[in-house]
Fold these 2 entries.
Entry 1:
Amino acid sequence: MEQKTVINIRDVSFRYDRENVLEHINLSVPQGAFVGLVGPNGSGKSTLLKIILGLLKVKEGKVELFGIPQHKFKDWDQIGFVSQKANSFNTGFPATVFEVVMGGLAKKIGIFRRPRQNEREAVEKAVKAVGMEPYLKRNIGDLSGGQQQRVFIARAIVSNPSILILDEPTVGVDSQNVESFYHMLTYLNKELGMTLLLVTHDIGTISDKVTHVACLNKYLHFHGSMKKFIQLDEQELSHLYGHGIRLLDHHHDH
Amino acid sequence: MIEAIFQYEFLQNAFLAGAIIGIIAPLLGAFIVVRRLSLIADALSHVTLSGIAAGLYLGQAVPSFGAVNPLYFGMIFSIGGSLLIERLRSVYKHYQELAIPIMMSGGIGAGVIFISLADGFNTDLFSYLFGSVSAVSRGDLFAVMAISVIVLLTVFLLYKELFILSFDEEYAKASGIPSKAVHFAFIILTALVIAVSMRIVGILLVSSLMTLPVAAAMRIAKGFKQTIWLSVLFGETAVLVGLFSAFYLDLAPGGTIVVTSIILLLVIIMWKKERN
């Protein structure tokens, strides 16, 4: 069966000032996949995510979301996003779990409108799906890192998106909870049919969970199903991990 | 005093204006504090001072300006100042707080020039600096009412957008809400509230009415809505207690309101400690 492509990146390059961060990236995410996007620090993973989310404007190449060119794409609540927790929120903020998750519905409810009963129920449902319902009325700052990250997942899925994008979601989550965290992601992928795009620098923990892998280090070095990835030999694998210069030499050989 | 309020128009003006400011200043203050923009309120109040001083000077120098309430000059300067701060914050991306001392000194500097031009300090100016129970005119009261309607309506209609922008700016942008426009509306509102609040609390102390009640509320509130309600409750208490004591003890209300807020804050902090 031909699977629909929900994210389609064609020949995208990106530079900050003079520094090239991404070069000729081609990446397609099929519907229902669980894609692990791996690469060392500074490999352009976060930049690629920002491009997909429309936070950075693409000047070279094109991005399609659900088959629609990105600049014409309006259905942003179809895409849930969980950022690196440490970067973007201040832990002392006086907001309850309920209030935080309701934030995920703002776009859907629309400007100038206020949430109603069905939106409140959607919030409770999302909080339940991540196993945080006992904490609904608690301040977000009083929770542990792992619990907070679950709350942010609830916020990302409350609008019922078909794609969920996660940027290093387990940073700051203790190893005990990481396993149950991935268990929950698998549930979202398998049971709720959500397409997941997970960014991480650690391929070890995700290798038995994802269906597809993309290895990024300025260039996209490998992109394919997990089965193919496992068949790569060691030498090829070492290429994937951050030897961009050597790959440049290969280009000269052509 | 209750009788006096019914009797004297100036007391009606002061108490009504105070009661309204006691609501809208902490209401906006809640967003300002959680966004770590507390000092911006301070910078804007100093810019407002230069606007008021310009208004007072123009009123003297150009007879046709004499009838214009200096408050409106204050508002215009305050809005201009807020836009400049935004501009400066994007110029100094990595030192955003630099915008505050730049605007603060700029505001005071320009203010001092206009004050000198207008032949130095007078009682009118004193009341703008520290607030006044007797100097609030009907015109001031109407300005406060008009601004409060705009503020309440905007916060009511844009509550969830303002909340997300405050909680997590990156997420707000990613989820596609018009964060620039919402932030713009917010900063204009802040400028307006500062301009009208200073009639009661005074320029030098106006930012405290936006931050101290919120600081107290944050110690004990569960959630952001509760933070807002408690902030308004504390702010209103401080304004009313402050105005009463200012009237009876013949003090400038700016001082009594701020001292009341500080006492409230200390009580809350100690009560919270006791409870843990």
Entry 2:
Amino acid sequence: MKKITRLTGALALAAAVTAAVSVEAKTFKFAFQGDVASMDPYALAENFSVSFHSNIHEPLVRYDENLQIEPALAVSWEIVNPTTWRFKLREGVKFHDGNAFEADDVAFSVKRAQGEGADMSSYVAGIADVKVVDAHTVDIVTTAVNPILLNTIAPLIIMDKQWAEANGAVEPVDLGKNVENYATLHANGTGAFKLVSREPGVKTVLTQNKDWWDLPNQTFNVTDVILTPIASDATRTAALLSGELDLMFPAPVQDVERINSSGVATALQGPELRTIFLGMDQERDELLYSSVKGKNPLKDKKVRQALYQAIDIEAIKTKVMRGASTPAGLLLAPKLGGFNEALNGRLAYDPAASKTLLAEAGYPDGFDIQLDCPNNRYVNDEQICQVVAGLFARVGVNVNLLAQPKSKFFAKLKEHDISMYLLGWIPDDQDAGSVIAHLMVPPEDGGLPWNGGGYGNPRVTELSRMITSEIDAAKRQTMIDEAFGIVKDEVGYIPLHQQALSWGVRNGVTVAQRADNALQYWYINIK
Amino acid sequence: MIPYILSRILQSVLVMLCVAMISFSMFTFVGDPVTNLVGIQSTDEQREKVRDSLGLNDPVPVQFTRFIGRVLQLEFGISYQQKRKVSSIIAERLPATLELSLLSAFIALAIGIPAGIFSALHRDSWFSHLFLSLSLVGVSLPTFLIGILLIFVFAVQLHLLPSFGRGEVVQLGFWSTGLLTVSGLKALIMPAITLALFQMTLIMRLVRSEMLEVLRADFIKFARARGLATRTVHFGYALMNTLIPVITITGLQLGSIIAFAIITETVFQWPGVGLMFIQAINEVDIPVMSTYLLLIASFFVIINLVVDLLYYAVDPRLRVGRESRT
């Protein structure tokens, strides 16, 4: 009997070994239109870089597939007093080089992210101090009450203090000082994947972290990841169709049909969190770029509404976006905190009403105005502006279109050297509050330069301040609704749509497409 | 001889300075680099701080002088986007471009010259007409279209060649080469043909017209009259006289192959300096852009200098002309 047990035991062991060996390597090859800026996670707070780094490093709390907050390096948290949050850290977590993850690393990371050369200020500016309570407990003290602290710090990933100190990477690269930094090409996190090699602009290779604390809870089978940037749309599509890639994004809208009919890949589309809209100069007494002299037609609500109702959003959706957009009534996408479907309706497309409104406002023959537009920032940005110009012309408003590369456009916008413009907005913290603070508070009330037309309303400004510090979720929602309601009623902006995320995925590969366009490798399975 | 060389070198330095100045003043029109250096929600003070630390608030002449001063010390600065030394980025990327360009030049010569000779000697043959009409296609189709067509046929339809990248590379000291691996060689084929096509047709047409010209010359008639073998007349006398202008043009074209590799590199995502330049323009990465332009300008200047010196050595008329003037 004993003998038999031993035999079965040996057999079981042998079976287990074979099973372990037969887990074959699955390499996931994907392309994005650009490259990660740097391996230093704090170098640039740009969407693609932040999402790439979240595969190597981890934050205290992270977003799941549906953009809900879930524990990551922190297992639990509580609010000690309105400006102090206490986080219990996960025990037994190790960085890729074997160092243990402890409270010191959190304090170090926040400090590094706040320092010179780091571009993380929108996440850490409101943190006054990080107090290490014990090796696995930290207190985060905020400068003011912050009801959405978890959202704010979700993109802030934790670096290893010992590693940074040992390699002279305590501070990110300061461009003024002309010296390189170890962290630009190397990384050491706690996350699901480890950095194997990095050739900037050419190829970046990652491999699975077998000691990842969350590995037992996940069901992905990708073992290695290769990122290649491919800038040319046509080449990116060809590389997917020829089977050299498992995934590429963005899939160009003009190629979506070709991808879907190829039989080897499918375009995966879903609404993105970015809202595209038109802004209007409402602060000057005379527009900078218009035929109307001595007054500002855009200060008149009737004119703004006339322009709104002149826009045939369905035409933009079908003709320009080829169906890959969701018309919007708010400057806030569904799935974002504070979104209210009841407010998301649009003013109807009605050229006749538009003409009447213009005549009532004193412009029966319309007027000329310049529309500023980026041409390499959003999906089909320049084409959208061209269609808008055509639609405005139908009601008598002649548009002089100035479409420029983003670096020129944004500089002009921030100077408010603009009369009418197209912009897209996605809040860093996935919350309505920052949309209001960035776009709906005028400069004289401490607003930010992104409010390019200087839109303002005293009540909205007041609400914006209240929203920033209201902890009670229901009360906060009422305030958000009121603020958006006012802006909508006054036609402070003309919302257009949320563009669609568009990924080209090889058949046989399953991924989770998160609405913020983040690609997380631990949701990927390859057949 | 020495004053001639010195004057040529002095001229080259002046050309380099002009290129540097023009490219530098162009950068003020490219846009604000700070837009790409910080996230969209950063404040104005942060932006101002970045701008100050990069010296972007100084007047353009001051920035230019500082730039030249650094270049003279072979210090090209740190890339805004990659946060690494521009010199090391270029050193990484240059082998890819040089391998591609040299192979393209080789293809262009190896096919262009024989095809040119053939179509000159057998003007009315079926092949000559084919070569000529094909060369018309090569001259008139834009490079990116040829690249996309090749990708569509050989990568998407036939799955024979990779559509992008350089394949596996082998590191030989500072030089990364794709010539030693199968995937590297496969990856090289389509970009090299795409880049070579225009030069190939150019060389073919040049050889053909030069050869036709030479074949009508008196000394060829005399050679024929002397009863020399057709072979000797064609390849010993006619071809040799044809090749002098061809060599000159080829030398000059090598510079433009390297410079025009930008388009081919973009289509095939070939990780060379041309692709790096395009990425730098998109991100307004001024240190990378200015260094690239200086590098390309220096290629042109050096090639021109060498060609000029070769002229001096080869062409006795040049020497005589100079001496009679002095």
